[in-house]
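Revision sheet: structure tokens.
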Amino acid sequence: MDAGLLAQYAIITVAVIVSAWFVAKRQFPNAVRRLRVGLAIPLVREGRAAWVQKLGRRIAPPSTLADASCGGCNSCGPSAPRRH
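Predicted:
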């Protein structure tokens, strides 16, 4: 296979993965959060190497102690009524 064609396939693959991740985060925030938690928990357990635990902490979603319960875009709440 030609190196240029391989590079083109690699760039397209990266673009598709980034696009899919963006859409998933915007449309399904709770599912993405559960996925990130599910991937991070096994990595941060005691007895793992320090670099594995660090990777797990990077994968883990940010804490939502003071946020809304959905973990989404933080724009929940009553919206102003529309005026025609």
